[in-house]
Amino acid sequence: MSQLRVTVWGENVHEQRDAEMMQRIYPDSMHETIAAGLRKNLDDVEVRTATLQDPEHGLTDEVLDATDVLTWWGHAAHADVSDEIVDKVHQRVLAGMGLLVLHSGHFSKIFIKLMGTSCSLQWRDSNDTENVWTVRPDHPIAEGVPHPIRIEGQEMYGEYFDIPQPDELIFVSSFTGGEVFRSGCTWRRGKGKVFYFSPGDQAYPVYHHPDVQRVLANGVRWAAPSVSGNREVPGIVAKPAPRLTTDDFERVRPGVQG
Amino acid sequence: MSQLRVTVWGENVHEQRDAEMMQRIYPDSMHETIAAGLRKNLDDVEVRTATLQDPEHGLTDEVLDATDVLTWWGHAAHADVSDEIVDKVHQRVLAGMGLLVLHSGHFSKIFIKLMGTSCSLQWRDSNDTENVWTVRPDHPIAEGVPHPIRIEGQEMYGEYFDIPQPDELIFVSSFTGGEVFRSGCTWRRGKGKVFYFSPGDQAYPVYHHPDVQRVLANGVRWAAPSVSGNREVPGIVAKPAPRLTTDDFERVRPGVQG
Amino acid sequence: MSQLRVTVWGENVHEQRDAEMMQRIYPDSMHETIAAGLRKNLDDVEVRTATLQDPEHGLTDEVLDATDVLTWWGHAAHADVSDEIVDKVHQRVLAGMGLLVLHSGHFSKIFIKLMGTSCSLQWRDSNDTENVWTVRPDHPIAEGVPHPIRIEGQEMYGEYFDIPQPDELIFVSSFTGGEVFRSGCTWRRGKGKVFYFSPGDQAYPVYHHPDVQRVLANGVRWAAPSVSGNREVPGIVAKPAPRLTTDDFERVRPGVQG
Amino acid sequence: MSQLRVTVWGENVHEQRDAEMMQRIYPDSMHETIAAGLRKNLDDVEVRTATLQDPEHGLTDEVLDATDVLTWWGHAAHADVSDEIVDKVHQRVLAGMGLLVLHSGHFSKIFIKLMGTSCSLQWRDSNDTENVWTVRPDHPIAEGVPHPIRIEGQEMYGEYFDIPQPDELIFVSSFTGGEVFRSGCTWRRGKGKVFYFSPGDQAYPVYHHPDVQRVLANGVRWAAPSVSGNREVPGIVAKPAPRLTTDDFERVRPGVQG
Fold this sequence. Notes:
Four copies of one chain form a homotetramer.
Chain A: E1 4-10, H1 14-17, H2 19-25, H3 30-41, E2 45-51, H4 61-65, E3 69-73, H5 83-95, E4 98-102, H6 109-115, E5 122-134, E6 149-158, E7 168-175, E8 180-189, E9 192-197, H7 210-223, E10 237-238, H8 246-251
Parallel strand pairs in A: 1-2, 1-3, 3-4, 4-9
Antiparallel strand pairs in A: 5-6, 5-7, 7-8, 8-9
Helix pairs in contact in A: 3-7, 5-6
């Protein structure tokens, strides 16, 4: 199997704006921490990072053409992502590129565009313990992680999470306050696979958590397009010749016609 | 709309075997308590009860022919339900009768037969608080109940709950111990609708809880078969005449054939 | 139950541009034909029409506030629908307004916005016979129509239809050329229900077909929001107080703690 | 990845009872033909066959312990399969063994047990042409086959096919008579994956068709359990210690308690 190529996109705003906190929690930045976790957990993977501040947000045609799976973390600057880049990413997903949407990325333009709903939820920043439970023990995304994954120190995300019914619900989380959240969900859009995973926040070291890193690695491998899949967006097919003709009709055994 | 006819089936074993505890918690028996809750919350409904000890477990052809929705609570005597009665109930569900399966009914023969999985789960009897959260705020089953429904005093049911992926996931619960459970799920089987709802136990007064009574009433109304639906089990249709003939081929506009 | 209020939206372009053909097939316009079919098949319904050319495309706040279900037919002028009106309709759907999308409406802005996919398909205008088969015989949308619904004279729509996996697949169609199409699909978006139904075209009298009229009527009744549902778009809930506190923990029976 | 081990189960009744016809169409028997197709299309696979007439129907504990994926074709003798063997196979599927159910296997005990529905359908033996269309172009089961797969000479299977809603619908077929059928469906049951594929019949050489052979090979690879998955049936977990304790409550930031 050819090398899996991943682009980890990070908003890179908290890293600048809240530098003191970020230096303590993510000294290498969140996106580099996520990328390092992928390299540690996956064989034969090539991981690059890209940020909002890069030209074209680092998502040039060249980069996207060489990306099998894109991961997306944003929070404070969703509105600053250009609509044109969002449209390009959207087309790539429909054509087969995998997409992982992380935590506050639920409010990103690309996730809302793919879901068609508000993607709103309940939240509280109170240093909760999150227990992430697996409801699909057979699923490759859930491979190699404990039941539950225990995360000491997390922002609470609670239902009602306004998403379309997931094609697959992989994880459900609880929090110290008694809230629950559908924390691991997949959908197919066109030929692409989308995986949303909520654990993770700029104020907590969640992306250093080995089980969280394992889930992201599993998710990236799961979301990769099939090797032989053609990377074209599904499109209109105009006026194809019929596939059933009078020859087919004449072949039918007589006597059973109406 | 004609009157909705409900049969509330109860195992009626704890009522005998643990009479002292049941006298405190369910002096009228669990099944009569559930039935009373339905009558209180639904207009134009006729509710009867039936128990394991009745001839044919109270589920004679006559009773089933006059049942639009059956509710099922069992726990200690699943194996004592006759296979023949289970088959009759199964056929009725496929033909359109609605079925509510309650709490420990997850291990009933009828639920396992309809699901095809082990229906196992985690459990702990430790007087937990259960918070029942709505993940389908638009669903009729969730109408008129708070978000969350708070139940002080409940047996813990936790994932992994070995069920097929629900057609609809309505509620997700959390417990004091941090466990989560897909506590409100629906499936269609044949022409019948099945609703599983976990809150409820012989050792806790859950079936007196007004919000739980409301959910059961909503569920019964939701599960009722359509008025005009014919109550026949889907069956084999042998050798129907084709619905497409040479006339159809000749009507097609010339010039577009392959 | 209060009166069901329906708005039938029509592009009203073919009615102008292809007036001779439309005079033969839909002398009252497609939208008025659809509206008349709804009035004939539904009791206690109030149906109005609105067109692209009306101010705000006829979808003012006043009209939308008084609309329980909106039906949408467009074909030649999807791009002329203002983004602002599309956003308003989108918000109403998430808040609970039902939406029926008809035939070439698969390429409407509102449908694409709700689906997140390209919504492309195969097509051929060759006067095919379409057989519409029911794969959910219990579903209210399929009530009272034959199996199959036979439509002599239809534009072929064929797979691959680039939609998200339907929450419910109600109908599957075949065509004289051997093509198949998932012709009746439902999805929930936010608190709203969406029903896509493909049969119908400006060049064929499909909307006069009594079975097609019956399906649209069933669909409108199915898509209506629940009477008591609050019509607010799901939104962020910030910093709710925890629902589980130390009191809950102290109530748990001692001895079973980890 | 270790070698994929497949057991192809065949009823082997038509091969005896209709020997003349079978000699013409499947001189090596249907099961050996299917097995040969798998060996041709898959690298690193070990395929054995087993039949109804073998001791324990060839499905001893030894064989099942060494089976990653089981394929099942039956037609005339479903009732002759012992319930004890069906239960063993069922348990293996819940524990992670993949299962492909083929054509008339829709009425097998094992398929009905896993589905919980009647699994009935429409049928007609009239030498129809079947066009098998892909509605999941991204799915590994659909890899490398044309759109549509054209099969000249097939028994018609038509809707209403009484199955639970598939977790994934992969293929939809049409027939010369205008019928449609959901011909490629997947479900998860416990930790096992189930794939039903309808094309195939003892009276037509469908299992020699290269595209059909490709689908079966894709299906077998897709259904294989994850390498590291433990092969235990999901079961009851009694009285686990809570995963949330007073320590978790004390860690929560003060001031945000209810």
